[in-house]
Design a protein that fits this description.
The protein has helices at residues 3-22, 40-45, 53-56. It starts with a helix and ends with a helix. It is mostly helical and 57 residues long. The longest helix is centred in the N-terminal third of the chain and has 20 residues, at 3-22. Bound molecules: zinc ion. Zinc ion binds next to helix 3. Residues 31, 33-34, 36, 51-52, 54-55 line the site of zinc ion.
Length: 57
C-alpha cells in the first residue's frame, strides 16, 4: 500500500466517524434547508454539510 492510499483511507475513516457521530442527532440525514432526506453516500462523503446536494449549491 502506498503512503497516499493510506492517507486517503485514513481520511475516509475520519469522515465516516464524523458521520457516525451525527447519527444520534434528530436531524441526521435531513437537509436543514428543504427538510428532504440526504443520500447516505453524501452524508458519508460530506458529513460536515447539513444540506442536500441542491441546497448546498
Ligand atoms: Zn435541501
Amino acid at each position: 500500500m502506498t503512503e497516499a492510499a493510506l492517507r486517503q483511507s485514513k481520511d475516509k475513516l475520519s469522515k465516516l466517524r464524523h458521520a457516525l457521530h451525527r447519527v444520534d442527532e434528530d436531524n441526521f440525514g435531513i437537509c436543514k434547508r428543504c427538510s428532504k432526506a440526504i443520500p447516505i453516500m453524501r452524508v458519508v462523503l460530506m458529513p460536515q454539510s447539513p444540506y442536500c446536494v441542491n441546497c448546498a449549491q
